[in-house]
Amino acid sequence: MALADFIFYYPVYAVLFAQHGLSTSQISSLFVIWSATAVLLEVPSGALADVVSRRALLVASALLSGAGFAAWTLFPSYPAFALGFVLWGVASSLSSGTYEAYVYDELVAHDAVRTYQRIIARGRAGSFVLNLAATLLAAVLLPLGGFALVGWASVATCVAQAAVALSLPAPTRARSTRTQGYVGMLRSGLREARHSVPVRGAVLVAALLPGFLAFDEYFPLLATDLGSPTDVVPLLIALTVAAQAIGAALAERARSGVIVPSLVLAAVLLGAGALSSHPAGFVPIAVGYGLLQLTIVIAETRLQDLIEGDARATVTSVAGLLSELFAIVLFVGFAVGAIWLSVTVLVAALAGWLLLLAAMLPRWLPSTRRLTGRVRREQRTAVRPVRRARPAATPPPCPGAARPGQRAAPAAAREPPRRTRPAAAGTPYAQPGRRPRRGTPGGTRRAPEHRATTCPRPRRRDSRRGTPHPRRPR
Predict the structure, then answer these.
(1) pTM for the full model?
(2) What is the DSSP string of 402-452?
């Protein structure tokens, strides 16, 4: 939802912390609390979104964010700031993956899944535009009413976001999500993200690409190293935000085949801009950042297309968790590399990693309509179909047995005709019409009757009178 980025506190909350006596280490500890909360609750909240109403979680996410900003405004102290970041982290984890899964499932239910990429692209572009607008409006609100006006305006935006989420239609949910339960849904999502070959590759790509966006925190330092004046730095950062909005808007009609060329071109532009040694280098950096945002929208759409189970929000949250962890690794790498290298060299090295990821994309992210032969073979070996047992053979009906709706025939009519051969003249029991006993000269054995063992054995009958009688004693 685009309103989630229309928060006036975003560009000034670090200044708020500093003005109330927090040191740099204390501000850094707040960021650690924020990141730790989001990382710990990312996947569990995704499984929760697959069990309960996703619309209710979106409403709760907006209200929790507003509560955190209200705590900052009412009680500006370190405990209130920490509480606000905890609530903000919980809200981020509740909305991460929930909104994408809600939109995709609703489009599937209405047979309009082809419009998913267009809707997500428009929402992403709108979020960047509103973020830029909030940054500009914060510069106007701060002189008028101070941090109090900025804070309550942010709380009002969260309330409006909750109202919009509440107006969404009731989610359509499959029956299996109600029977599996929370633990079963969590296991199902983790199993699909780990064992399904195409989903696993799509999760990796959808996690790594947003993780590369984390180096925008170093854009002010990069602009300074490129020789930009201090008063021009906000304009250069705003240029990158506008480029991301344009890239997300262009992803509305982009095909999946452009993801690799776009990522290669983005890496080249980022590296060239970082090594340009001039403030004008931010122009190719902004264009590369916009292309990177385009590839992110396509990769997230591909991930939703490849998920086949009911734990859609759980699988999407796994990608979000890996993205957060990759961002932490990126921060640590910048902190260690800054001991020997400049920021410009580090950003150029990061462009090299983007080229490596572009080389791995055809293997990790196959087409949704036509998987490669390798993926098909791995799918057959990884998931074997369960063989169904053959149904038991139905025994043939007994002669003269009654069918449904019919009455049984008399005993005389049920007996099959005897296959006999008349005895030769002069042999014992050679009376006309009488069958000789077994073993007597001229007698023949009766042909075997292939009848089920459950059928009753027919009684002998007198061929002259047609009435059954007991066997003759030997």
Answers:
(1) 0.69
(2) PPTT-PPPPHHHHSPPP---PPPTTSTT--TTPPPPTTSTT--PPPPP---
Amino acid at the residue 268: V
Q: What confidence tens digit (pLDDT) does each residue in 59-116 have?
A: 999 999 999 999 999 998 999 999 999 999 899 888 888 888 888 888 888 888 888 8
Task: Report the distance separating Cα 287 and Cα 270, nearest Å.
Answer: 8
Q: Give the torsion sign (CA, 365, 368, 372, 376).
A: positive
Q: Are 173 and 104 in contact (CB under 8 A)?
A: no
Does 399 have pLDDT greater than 70? no
Closest-CA residue to 197 (of 375, 384, 377): 375
* DSSP bridge partners of 468: 461
Nearest Cα residue to 70 out of 428, 62, 136: 62
Which are the contacts of 299, defined by CB distance < 8 A and separation ≥ 6?
202, 205, 206, 209, 259, 365
CB 203 within 8 A of CB 315: yes
- pLDDT for the residue 396: 54
Do residues 312 and 96 lie in contact, with contact meaning Cβ atoms separated by under 8 Å? no
Nearest in space to 247 (alpha carbons), one of 201, 202, 299? 299
Q: How confident is residue 384, by pLDDT bands cut at 50, 70 and 90? A: very low
Q: Cα separation of 147 and 69, whole Å?
A: 11
Residue-wise DSSP of 225-268 = HTT--GGGHHHHHHHHHHHHHHHHHHTTS--GGGHHHHHHHHHH
- Decide if 274 contacts 344 (C-beta within 8 A): yes
Among candidate residues 348, 176, 202, the one with its CA nearest the CA of residue 271: 348
Type of residue numbered 28? S
On the 0-12 / 13-18 / 19+ scale of CB atoms within 10 A, 465 is exposed
**Residue 348, CB-side half-sphere exposure with 13 Å CA sphere:** 13
Residue 324: phi, psi to the nearest 5?
Answer: -65, -45
Model confidence band, residue 160 (pLDDT cutoffs 50, 70, 90)? very high
For the segment 344-382, what is each residue's pLDDT rounded down to a tens digit? 888 888 888 888 888 888 888 765 444 434 334 434 444
Mean pLDDT over all residues of the chain? 76
Q: DSSP state, 171?
A: P
Q: Give the containing element (helix H, strand E) for 122.
A: helix 116-166
